[in-house]
């Protein structure tokens, strides 16, 4: 048995749910020395599919509103953690991409992350089949270690 590596560059993808927020707190605890580590928060906005009955104009307007509101929420989340934990270095990455899994893996590599910490939403059955699991996808394709955080109410 070898000692666990000290991880100093952590990527924490978030969808701004309670589970994702708990995963951020968990990631902070994983830093061996908070003054030397960095947590990269990532939000991937996947464009929604065009809904029947929407014109291209109304779709673009709707998407623009969703993007603006989501960016604001992400900025608030980032600032909240920066203020709560001033000893930890946080950076925020907001990406608009079609594939969250590929984007998470790419940002992890670009930021030289040595660990990805993700929340599990505990979806089961048909919901999981229909919605998929981003965390599972990242675990499958990432060459960087991945920790899946499950909140206490999912155990």
Based on the model shown, name its key terms.
5 helices; 155 residues; globular; alpha/beta
Give your account of this protein's structure.
The protein has 155 residues and is an alpha/beta fold. 44% of the residues lie in helices and 19% in strands. It has helices at 18-30, 56-84, 100-110, 125-131, 134-141; strands at residues 9-13, 38-45, 89-96, 115-119, 146-149. The chain has a five-stranded parallel β-sheet, sandwiched between helices. The mean pLDDT is 86.
Order of helices and strands: EHEHEHEHHE
Residues in helix, %: 40-55%
Task: Please tally the β strands and state the result.
Answer: 5
Radius of gyration, CA atoms, in whole angstroms = 17 Å
Shape: globular
Fraction in beta strands:
15-25%
Query: How much is the average pLDDT?
Result: 86
Largest sheet: 5 strands, parallel
Separation of the first and last Cα atoms: 27 Å
Uncertain segments: none
Report the structural category: alpha/beta
Number of helices: 5
Spatial sequence of strands, sheet with the most strands: 3-2-1-4-5
Architecture blueprint of SSEs:
Blueprint lengths: L8 E5 L4 H13 L7 E8 L10 H29 L4 E8 L3 H11 L4 E5 L5 H7 L2 H8 L4 E4 L6
Parallel strand pairs: 1-2, 1-4, 2-3, 4-5
Helix pairs in contact: 3-5
